[in-house]
Amino acid sequence: MLEPTMSGSDCWWFELGGRQDTIGEDGNTALELRRLVLGVWDYIKNSGRFEADCYTLSWIGSIPGKRESRRMVTDYLLRGEDVLRGSNFEDGAFYGGWYLDVHPAGGMLDADAPNFVQTPVPVYPIPLRCLYNSQVENLLFAGRCIGTEREAFFSTRVMDTCALSGQAAAMLAAACAMWHTVPGQMTKAQVAQLRQQLLREDLFVPGLQADESANLAHEAKLTVTSVHDGRAGAPTGTMSLEEGGFVTFPGVDGTVLLSVTLHTPQTLCGTLYSAPLPNYLCPGKKIREYCWKLPAGHHKLPIQAQAGRFCTLVLEAAPDAELPLCQPLRTGFVCGKKEMPVCGEPMLEYETPESLYGAEQLVNGYIRPWGGANQWCAAPQDPEPCITMQWPQARELEQLRLYLDPELCAERPSSHAAQWQDSHKLTLYREMPAQLARDMIVEISLDGSSWEPVWEQKDNRKRLITVVLPKEQKVQALRIRFTRTWGPRPVGVFALHVV
Ligand SMILES: Cc1cc2nc3c(=O)[nH]c(=O)nc-3n(C[C@H](O)[C@H](O)[C@H](O)COP(=O)(O)OP(=O)(O)OC[C@H]3O[C@@H](n4cnc5c(N)ncnc54)[C@H](O)[C@@H]3O)c2cc1C
């Protein structure tokens, strides 16, 4: 029943055609859908249940959109189990992460079925083999029709994942053309090489580490002007735990102290999980349970974290309990309420916080958060953070790549998010990410002491920066000066790659 209070995803049941031939009967389905839309509109205008006298209908789509459609039979069909478990594949090439988002096939004809059911999943790899069938050796698939079983398809069909499959398929085609081969006959070494190229082009392959052997940064003395000390920023407010909540942070060996405030004596219980990525809906493997019996007041709860993973503490509902929040300054920290997430950075302290954002992470082979923040982050008080590489002997350099931080640990909703329900607004951005480098200069030194600029960027909006270096000159040192970020956060860089 359509109710005046419904909006957005409450109305996802206005669907039809799931049991029809979505290609052969496309025109009929389009007409049926138009009838459905106009029927709904008639009901809104004329039933008297809606205050809709002054409403006008602004738009009706002319093409029937297909949520589910034909899928191709490829060399591997991704299974629902692969999605739920995050199965590892030797030819994993890109990723998905949307829920198993099941809609009833009959749409509004299945009136008794739930509108939709969304089962959270981890970020999971999708293999190259889902993009081709060896029997038709020169044909690739991308987008909604890649090879998956129906259950996995509930997750892979979303636009972002479709787009990533397009990039992977395009790079697969280019590699095959270069190697004079076809996808089904690529050797293991070629698949491995292609996966490395995908990574370099910033296509995240969950768990895959970049091959650093060609990165000339390893042959240089790498220094930075400052390192974020890993300590929490200034207090900004609190988040109620009345409905429960969660706290996610990069794990380390040892104890982590989480600040809480209780207005009455009570027992605070929670469960700690660990996963390679922060994921509040699918927090990962259970580590242990906690119950702290506490008097009223401020407390620092000791949590035994685990290194090499992100940890998520899911806290049970606790009336009169609050989590103090701090100025967001650290990548990899998120907290929120369970059912209606609000974004924030929890007040969390480490015994040895210095190790969180060291410069060595610039060349550790991870270009995104995975098992940890994997980034160098400058100190908040550093007026002009700078990375310098000095080689023992002057050498020719061709290209520098920088992988910056546009806030990869938080959800980035689309521009329509203003119309969303609160439950979709984990981290709503209306501005550029505060820690993304905005203005920067790349300089080279031929003698190790005097510097000349070779590249400058203002108002940068990209994550992956590629700088072509003057190949004809032998360079003794190279430095990257970050003169401005987009907001009040120090610059964060995941990786740099020099060839
Ligand atoms: C109602 C609905 C809601 C959805 N909601 C979301 C959502 O909230 N978020 C999300 O991420 N995804 C959502 N999806 C899923 C997502 O939109 C699709 O899975 C995705 O857009 C598919 O992309 P694609 O490029 O594979 O195919 P399409 O977007 O269908 O593109 C295929 C294109 O090929 C063209 N074409 C077809 N035949 C020919 C031909 N012979 N010659 C030339 N061109 C041709 C078509 O006109 C079309 O433009 C939704 C889908 C539907 C139907």
What does this structure look like?
By secondary structure, the chain is α+β, with helices and mostly antiparallel strands. It has 4 domains: 66 residues, no CATH class; 121 residues, no CATH class; 153 residues, Sandwich (Jelly Rolls); 119 residues, Jelly Rolls. It is built from 5 helices and 24 strands. Strands 6, 8, 11, 13, 15 and 16 form a 6-stranded antiparallel beta sheet that branches. A 5-stranded antiparallel beta sheet has the order 5-18-23-20-21, with no helix packed on it. Strand 20 and strand 21 form a beta hairpin. The longest helix is centred in the N-terminal third of the chain and has 21 residues. About 1% of the residues have low confidence. The structure holds flavin-adenine dinucleotide. The site of flavin-adenine dinucleotide has 10 residues, from helix 4.
Q: How are the secondary structure elements laid out?
A:
Blueprint lengths: L25 H21 L33 H6 L6 E5 L3 E3 L14 E3 L4 E4 L22 H7 L2 H21 L8 H13 L20 E4 L10 E6 L4 E6 L3 E9 L3 E10 L9 E10 L2 E9 L4 E6 L5 E6 L7 E4 L7 E2 L1 E3 L25 E2 L8 E11 L2 E6 L32 E9 L6 E6 L6 E5 L5 E12 L6 E7 L1
Antiparallel strand pairs: 1-4, 2-3, 5-18, 6-13, 7-12, 7-14, 8-11, 8-13, 8-16, 9-10, 9-12, 13-15, 17-24, 18-23, 19-22, 19-24, 20-21, 20-23
This protein binds flavin-adenine dinucleotide (FAD).
